[in-house]
Design a protein that fits this description.
Elements (H helix, E strand, L loop, with lengths): L4 E6 L2 E7 L5 H19 L7 H7 L4 E3 L2 H16 L9 H6 L30 E3 L4 E3 L12 H17 L3 E5 L2 E5 L7 E5 L12 E5 L3 E6 L4 E4 L2 E4 L2 E2 L4 E2 L4 E8 L2 H14 L3 H8 L3 E5 L4 E4 L14 E2 L7 E3 L1
Parallel strand pairs: 8-19
Antiparallel strand pairs: 1-2, 2-6, 3-5, 4-5, 6-7, 7-10, 8-9, 9-18, 10-15, 11-12, 13-14, 15-16, 16-17
Helix pairs in contact: 1-5, 5-6, 6-7
């Protein structure tokens, strides 16, 4: 750990904490990691001791859960409601059937053909939450997967906590999802948004400056594997129970918080050709990259050279401090 930046592994991917003052980094890092570790213990599908694993195992019974897991499930159900089911936490069984049943680094890149029956997700309305008793009841046969929103929630909580603990401007990024916290940085945070996930150095993309809120990117080019002759990925279409067939390679969205940005990016991949109009209707700045490499900007996302700040973005900076892939 040197300078104003710390990098580490978290939630099965790469995480970064940045501050504008080196003396603030230790406090920011400690606070951020505490929030991230809390989300991991509550929401991971890959830890036998996580709360989510215990909740899924108790399907059919009302289970008292921690405030953090309750909030994470509430967030996931809100995502389902605002996207009309395009982002649905009840896809857990489908995700597992596709082979994503362990930390992604341990998922075999190839394997035998899948015997997957086409079945829509049971539906987020089937999950019963009691806000008074703080219990959650998952129906028998349903497995919750909070992967679509829990990472983004961790980013928001970590950025807020790190900014408060350090008293300095902070940016937290986990696997391409990021948020800023603490006092505003006068010139914003330069971020390189790229769709070329295979390039480690000098990747092509667009640099934007985020001044507040969050940014998220979802795509099908990183977490993918093969089963038989079929290529599958981790973004499941709840309407079919299969990996989403999309015209977009990646979707990047800016919003008031990382959770909202992540909800929109995941929904955009699932919605496919309907995504631009949906994003425009919400007024969310988005950068969509097609499977053919074509870039589409909607909702006020800045052009390659933006003359002035726009909805939380500023003119591209020459030296990005974090790469979003």
């Amino acid at each position: 750990m040197t300078g104003h930046i710390a990098r580490f592994r978290a939630l099965g991917t790469n995480a970064t904490v940045l501050t504008t003052r080196s003396g603030a980094l230790d406090a920011a890092l400690e606070a951020a990691r505490a929030q991230i570790d809390g989300i991991d213990a509550a929401c991971s599908r890959f830890r036998d001791d996580s709360e989510l694993v215990a909740l899924n195992a108790a399907a059919g019974s009302a289970v008292t859960v921690s405030p953090l897991l309750f909030d994470a499930i509430t967030t996931a159900l809100r995502a389902a409601a605002v996207t009309q089911g395009c982002v649905d936490p009840t896809v857990g069984t489908s995700v597992r059937a596709l082979g994503y049943d362990r930390d992604f680094r341990s998922v075999p890149p190839d394997g035998p053909a899948l015997e997957v029956h086409l079945r829509a997700a049971p539906g987020w309305q089937s999950v019963v939450m009691d806000r008074t008793a703080h219990t959650v009841q998952v129906p028998v046969g349903v497995e919750l997967d909070l992967g679509a929103t829990a990472k983004a929630l961790a980013v928001d909580l970590a950025a807020e906590s790190a900014g408060r603990a350090s008293g300095a401007p902070v940016l937290v990024s986990i696997g391409g999802d990021l948020a800023v916290g603490g006092p505003a940085r006068p010139d914003g945070w330069p971020v390189l948004v790229t769709h070329d996930h295979a390039v480690d150095e000098d990747p092509e993309g667009q640099t934007v400056t985020i001044e507040a809120g969050g940014l998220a990117t979802s795509g099908t080019a990183v977490r993918h594997w093969r089963r038989g002759q079929v290529e599958v990925h981790h973004l499941v279409d709840p309407r079919t129970g299969r990996s989403a067939t999309s015209c977009w390679r990646t979707a990047t969205v800016a919003a008031a918080c990382c959770v909202d940005a992540n909800i929109a990016t995941t929904a955009a991949i699932v919605l496919g050709p309907d995504a631009p109009a949906w994003l425009e209707g919400l007024g969310l700045p988005a950068r969509l990259v097609g499977t053919d490499g074509r870039v589409l900007r909607v909702g006020g996302w800045p052009a390659e050279v933006a003359p002035a700040p726009l909805r939380g973005f500023g003119a591209p900076a020459s030296r990005p401090e974090v790469v979003v892939r």
